[in-house]
Automatic annotation (TrEMBL):
Taxon lineage: Bacteria, Pseudomonadati, Pseudomonadota, Alphaproteobacteria, Acetobacterales
Ranges of residues in domain Aspartyl/asparaginy/proline hydroxylase: 55-207
Name this polypeptide is given: Aspartyl/asparaginyl beta-hydroxylase domain-containing protein
Entries under InterPro entries matching the protein: Asp/Arg/Pro-Hydrxlase (IPR007803), Asp/Asn_beta-hydroxylase (IPR051821), IPNS-like_sf (IPR027443)
Key word Hydrolase present: no
Keyword Oxidoreductase (UniProt): yes
UniProt cross-references to Pfam families, sorted A to Z: Asp_Arg_Hydrox
Top-level taxonomic group: Bacteria
Keywords: Dioxygenase, Oxidoreductase, Plasmid
Family, similarity comment: Belongs to the aspartyl/asparaginyl beta-hydroxylase family.
Length: 258
């Protein structure tokens, strides 16, 4: 075994070999369709969130008054995403990540955090921010145990030039509206505009039963305890500490503090 392979987290090295079987079991025992794109009406909380989207968008706009410095590059937080985030134009603002609450960020978007916390089976919730020209190459998610929902927060004016393709379906975002999909199907994203694109990205547990439910729970539990999730958690804490230190130094330099 090469050093590069041996250094990868156990859940990645072993899980990759058995994931097809696990995903087949989860899909077979799914209570919702196993399709690339799903109908948002399957989950009543999505409609409720869309009805209150103006509050989430308002909090996002307030957050944006501090500029994009509020958003660390996803690759800096989660090195596991380096392949699909080759530069810093894909940024993130985490509220929840694999069950871990980012308290400082939740305090900056309190209404959004409360909405997210009430979602059944919540795994992660964060603002996914793409700068102009950003591209996320074709890739597949890890597990059918999770579904992904995007709520449009800031959609470029030329929205048709900013899209996500999931399997053979190309979708565009709308402010205050959601799209729902299974990210184990091949998907890619492009922002071919001069504007920024932001969505609230929510990952939550797929409703399942029987053996599929058991497999799903065991796999997600292993991922949440894995080294790469802990690394991302530590990286985010380090980024916040560094950001605070830079802000403190800037205030001192400006003569605002002694």
């Amino acid at each position: 075994m090469s050093d590069a392979v041996a250094s990868r987290p156990f859940i990645i090295r072993v899980g990759k070999k058995v994931r097809p079987l696990l995903n087949t079991l989860i899909a077979h025992n799914s209570l919702v369709p196993d399709t690339p794109v799903l109908d948002t009406s399957l989950f009543p909380w999505i409609s409720n969130m869309e009805q209150r989207a103006f509050r989430i968008i308002e909090e996002f706009r307030i957050l944006m008054t501090h500029g994009v410095s509020s958003f660390p590059a996803l690759r800096d937080i989660s090195p596991d995403h380096t392949r699909i985030a080759p530069d810093t134009r894909w940024k993130s603002f985490f509220l929840y990540g694999y069950g871990n609450c980012v308290l400082e960020n939740c305090r900056r978007m309190p209404c959004t955090a409360r909405f997210a916390a009430a979602i059944p089976g919540l795994n992660s919730a964060f603002v996914s921010f793409l700068e102009p020209g950003a591209r996320i190459p074709l890739h597949n998610g890890v597990t059918k145990g999770l579904l992904t929902c995007h709520l449009g927060l800031q959609v470029p004016q030329d929205y048709r030039d900013c899209w996500i393709r999931i399997d053979d379906q190309m979708l565009c975002w709308q402010d205050g509206k959601c799209i729902l999909f299974d990210d184990t199907y091949p998907h890619e994203v492009q922002n071919n505009t001069s504007d920024h694109r932001a969505v609230l990205l929510i990952q939550f547990e797929r409703p399942t039963y029987g053996v599929g439910r058991l497999v799903q729970g065991m796999f997600l539990k292993a991922v949440r305890r894995s080294a790469f999730v802990q690394e991302a958690k530590n990286n985010l804490a380090h980024w916040h500490a560094l950001h605070h230190e830079m802000a403190r130094t800037e205030r001192q330099t400006s003569g605002l503090t002694v």
